[in-house]
Design brief:
Two copies of one chain form a homodimer. Chain A is an all-alpha fold. Chain A folds into two domains: 50 residues, Arc Repressor Mutant, subunit A, CATH 1.10.10.60; 157 residues, Tetracycline Repressor, domain 2 (Orthogonal Bundle). Chain A contains nine helices and no strands. In chain A, helix 1 packs across helix 6 and helix 5 packs across helix 9. The longest helix of chain A is centred in the middle third of the chain and has 26 residues. Chain A is elongated. At the A-B interface, helix 7, helix 8 and helix 9 of A face helix 7, helix 8 and helix 9 of B. Chain B binds a DNA duplex through helix 1 and helix 3.
Chain lengths: 230, 230
DNA sequence: ACCCTCCTACCGAACGTTCGGTCGCTCTAA
DNA sequence: TTAGAGCGACCGAACGTTCGGTAGGAGGGT
């Protein structure tokens, strides 16, 4: 195999394994040696592809967060109605967490593992803020246009985002509900939460979802902790 | 001070500090020495009150989960209407996570840190199942009685529970919304999610909420990671 | 076709540090 | 006088990371 390809392949396998292990056990509970064993290398070999354990985590998180932002802006492009935008925000966040459960669990839950005050951490927080601004704007516009009736916009946003992100904890592609059913149900709940008077016409284009490049292939041998299997 | 009291006090301070550190940094990222420093002891001193680090975590989780179950059953006692029961489930789960954010974050998120197959882990999973059964039953009863219209009961339950448990990540007692407002809003969202036709008359008695005995006093100096401060 | 050199992916071994946990002593309150 | 809370010192193991070395493909000259 070409050396360039070999390097790219090793980097990809390391990141895929890292996403899997960080999501299952947590960053702090995963050692470089665990990671090396998973990709068939020694711990020293890992450091040819990664400058440090924390830089690896930061890289995974930054790419994932940026991918979510890009996908969201692709989906919202040209959509004006606040109800449509809210529906697309709910669908895309839910679908992203359903289809990339490992990546999104690391993205959502490992910020505390990055050194406080470090540049990468601040950058990722800024990305998160930029993403949430799309929600803030959609809700504020809906209220301003009189099509949403919301008591507390921050409260509503946090409730709906928790609902969507929670999907990564329980969704299974071979489970009882299809992704389309989940999205449709969550959109219905979200529109009820904002007392939307307008009808939703936008349909999410799932091909615009983020590509999480290191999401592990669905491990049939139960990649998820037992408590999430119900 | 009486020796018995001194022991009880040390045990309490250890558990309070453990809940705080486990919630902030995670179990794996917290060392016994971190814990000892927080309570003004050496690492060896800790082991006079705790048999092992994992047993300490299991103890915190078991007591928290049992407290939630007890409080839920106190609240639901004698309440027959499914709409009332759902409203009380939402209120109590939300309020528990708002008032005991550290305890509930450990309870919800550290199951993966317990040794797979261990007796304590299985016991805590069983407690969690027992708690969730109250939700399953309320939704199923509502559907059976014709007062709820739900496409997928499991889906609805998971969405609403995620919304409630997410509260521990952002709620602040000195924030913009009061606990009563949060509960009222979440109950409204929940009832809309099940297309409840019945009116809700039950009012949650907050004095029946679980007493999480080791929840740290609200640390004004920002006990929460920066990303949750918005 | 061949050799020679370079480069790079990776390994074996070790670094200093920190981990969870133990042991025996000291000190103190009852 | 005694029990036990807490401490100082320590254990073996594991941690993240580094370093010198090696195998083998890549590339150029002949």
């Amino acid at each position: 195999m070409d050396l360039k390809d070999r390097d790219a392949d090793a980097s990809r396998r390391i990141r895929t394994a890292a996403v899997l292990l960080f999501a299952q056990r947590g960053y702090a509970a995963t050692s470089i040696r665990d990671l090396a064993r998973e990709v068939g290398m020694t711990n020293a070999g890992i450091y040819h592809h990664v400058s440090s354990k924390e830089a690896l985590l930061a890289d995974l998180m930054r790419v994932a967060q940026q991918g979510l932002i890009d996908a969201t802006e692709r989906m919202l492009r040209g959509v004006r109605s606040p109800a449509d935008r809210l529906a697309l925000l709910i669908s895309s966040l839910t679908a992203s967490h359903a289809l990339g459960p490992m990546t999104t669990r690391v993205m959502d839950g490992e910020l505390r593992s990055l050194t406080p005050g470090s540049a990468v951490r601040d950058q990722i927080i800024a990305l998160r803020d930029a993403y949430e601004d799309h929600w803030r704007l959609a809700l504020a516009d809906g209220v301003a246009e009189g099509v949403f009736r919301i008591a507390d916009q921050r409260l509503t946003r946090l409730a709906l985002m928790s609902m969507c992100t929670g999907t990564s904890e329980w969704y299974r592609p071979d489970g009882d509900s299809t992704l389309e059913q989940v999205c449709a149900e969550f959109v219905a709940i979200g529109l009820a939460a904002v007392r939307a008077s307008a009808q939703v016409v936008a349909t999410p284009d799932l091909s615009l979802l983020p590509d999480f490049p290191w999401e592990p292939p669905d491990v049939r041998n139960d990649p998820r902790p037992a408590e999430a299997r119900r």
